[in-house]
Amino acid sequence: MTTTPIEQLASLRVGTVEFISPDRIEVQLDIESPDSVALNTGTPRNFPRINGYVMIPVDLGFVVGQVSWITIQRSPYPKRSGFQDFGLIDLPFPLRKMELQPVGTLIASEKGYKFKRGLETFPSVGDIVILPTETQLKSIIESGENRRVYIGNSPLVGNAKVMIDPDRLFGRHLAVLGNTGSGKSCSVAGLIRWSLESANISKTKKDIPVNSRFIVLDPNGEYSKAFADKKEANIYSVNIEDGDGRKQLEVPLWFWNTDEWCGFTKASPKTHRTTIVHALKSVRSGNVFEEVSRQSELASFVRTAIDTIQVCKASGTPWGKFPLPKNFHQSFEKLVSGITSEDGFSDDLNNAIQAFSVKANELIVARSGQYPHYDYTRADVDDLIALLKEVYLKAGGREEEFLPTDEDSPIPFSGDNFVRSIEANAEILNTTDYIVTLMPRIKTLLSDVRVKKVIDDTSLELSDWLGEYIGSDNKESLTIIDLSLLPSDVTSIITAVIARMVFEAQQRYLKLNKACLPTVLVMEEAHYFVKRYNDDAENTGPTTQCCKVFEKIAREGRKFGLGLVLSSQRPSELSPTVLSQCNSFLLHRISNDRDQELVQRLLPDNMRGILREMPSLPSQYAVLLGWASELPVMVKMRTLPEAQRPQSDDPDYWNVWTGAKERKIDWKSIANEWQNKRTE
Questions:
Q1: How many Cα neighbours within 13 Å face the side chain of 89?
Q2: Which pLDDT score, from 0 to 100, does residue 211 have?
């Protein structure tokens, strides 16, 4: 005997709509509706259940509602099916009610059911509420196109597979949030591994490697173990040992741009920054002389003087409003006094110096007297620059060094040359007294043996670095950068430099190839590096500079194919700019009330019900929501084998205390490693 559609709906009925608004539906459950287990949906299912799903038939299909609360309402006059009259023997009967959050519409099609977010037609008071069948329930959870990567199962929906579209997950940034020990690190490692596995299975050409790029910034050294089995993974660390499979981390100081140098040295924007800009421009222009001689010293001085005058010319200082021309004139007088002929110089050099001195003295004399004027014309400044260039060339400089050079271009230079350039520029700019607090920080950095191998390499080719860290042609690239042994005062800047170099490489790839190169940048313990800061502060430190880099990536990275994955246990400490640009969230257990409040503000009001379960989520369970999921869904993440998990297990106190697990202690070897002592 066949069942009509009306009879089928009647068999699945559990209640009636009693109240409806755009974001809330109240339902009165029938007395005959299941109390704990529903048997009328094809397979036994728990009902009613918080964050479970029910449906309301409408014209276009079914409105899908998510259960947010259930209560009992005591009624002295029960309405029981089949009874029209009430006698004295009838007793008060509890009526059950539940509230639903409307989440979308389930539409029937020839290929089955299709779920979409939003409601076009609302139900009305008195409409029946039914339980979805197994097929309908899976259609809700497994909604969306291009579901390519299997990440876990939904415990609320008969363990239906939860699969995601990598384009959505990584393309618009992902935040993995949760308390320590809730499974964040395993989820991040799993998302990387499962994505690569799925790509290997689905690739169009089986004889070529997956053309993927993952870069993991790991401040705690957790992920080296998780990907030790992948031969193509490049693992970089600070202090490497032979045979451990890791490579030396290299982020040369000539990679650093002006903002990063100013952030590291905490340079003031008025005096320090100007000196650093001039010094970087000079040293990147090739103004480097290894041999110390009077002629080379003169050439270095003249090259810096040319840069200084050109900067003043670009800003209009020589002919600007008073006192700008007077300041320029005083600096120019000091500059002229440093350029003099000597017996050891060649005749050509002395002649060039003499020609410059004649013109300079002519301009100086014209601006002396009782009521002098200090304005310089553009022609005067151009003549001075031309004469100074002639002196520079005769002193051993090269013509090509006068081509326009950006102070932030990654052109190699040594730390010693940078220090000399700062001192020379400070003398010309008359800021020598102000750099006394700047120089010790830079010299301390250059002399620190802990970071010397990281920052001191002028022979490194930029193209080789990009190929190793981002990935070369037709190669599966997985880069793990272990930052755990870096000194705390340079970790933020090193992280900022790596992130910015990756971002700018993506920009240039798009410019040259007219197509982006999809790359994923993973930031573990993001609250250390993407920490909210006071934008009103005059001096920006390394942590602030690091955060600004990630804010730029969060805002603009998608256009250049750079996706961001943030993992943090303190979302309330993250930069609001970065967090607001994350379109997908994987939320593990969050207990702190401030963190819960922040996460709830990221969602629409009618989606917050599922987040009430966050404080009680077991480890390995999470809520996936946002752009990567058609609707919020609780997921039990796939289990990683022990060997593939990040090294972030909880300490095993009891077994160590009781001797079940042995812990040998050799403080001597630790002290030797700490103090860089060689062991026999």
A1: 0
A2: 86
Q: What does the angle CA 492 – CA 498 – CA 502 come to, to the nearest 5 degrees?
A: 145
Q: Output the pLDDT for position 10.
A: 74
Question: Which secondary-structure segment (H or E) carries 312?
Answer: helix 294-315
Q: What is the pLDDT of residue 316?
A: 83
At 438, the amino acid letter reads L
* Strands 149-154 and 128-130, sheet pairing: unpaired
Selection from 460, 458, 455, 465 nearest residue 487 by Cα: 455
Q: Any bridge partners for residue 235, and if so which?
A: 480
Query: Tokens 């539409």 map to which residue?
Result: 107
**What contacts 444, CB < 8 A, 6 or more positions away?**
none
Asked if 19 and 26 count as a contact pair (C-beta separation under 8 A), the reply is yes
Kindly give the parts of the chain with pLDDT less than 50: 1, 86, 88-89, 289-291
DSSP 455: H
**Exposed, middle or buried by CB within 10 Å (0-12, 13-18, 19+), for 360?**
buried
Do the Cβ atoms of 13 and 47 come closer than 8 Å? no
Tokens 């989520």, located at residue: 617
Neighbours of 243 (CB within 10 A): 6
Dist CA 1 CA 350 (whole Å): 113
Beta pairing class for 213-218 and 477-482? parallel
In the chain the first and final C-alpha atoms are separated, in Å, by 88
Three-class DSSP category at 6: helix
Q: Using one digit for the tens of pLDDT, what is the confidence trace for 572-593?
A: 889 988 988 998 999 998 888 8
Residue ranges of alpha helices (H) inside 142-271 are 166-171, 184-202, 223-226, 258-265
The pLDDT value given to residue 43? 67
* β-strands 519-523, 128-130 pairing: unpaired
β-pairing, 233-237 with 61-75? unpaired
HEC profile of 461-511: CHHHHHHHHCCCCCCCEEEEEECCCCCHHHHHHHHHHHHHHHHHHHHHHHH
Q: What is the residue type of 5?
A: P
Tokens of 382: 């151009």
Strand pairing partners for 13? 130
Give the torsion sign (CA, 83, 84, 90, 96).
positive
β-strand partners of 306: none
Which candidate, 366, 369, 389, 386, places its Cα nearest to that of 378?
A: 386
Residue that the structure tokens 């250059």 belong to: 446
Three-state DSSP class for 235?
strand
By residue count, the chain amounts to 680
Q: H or E element: which one contains 101?
A: strand 93-109
Q: Please list the alpha-helical segments (H only) found in 33-174.
A: 134-141, 166-171
Taking only the tens place, the pLDDT of each residue in 548-578 is 999 999 999 999 999 999 999 888 889 988 9
Question: Using an 8 Å Cβ cutoff, are 638 and 150 in contact?
Answer: yes
- At residue 127, the pLDDT reads 93
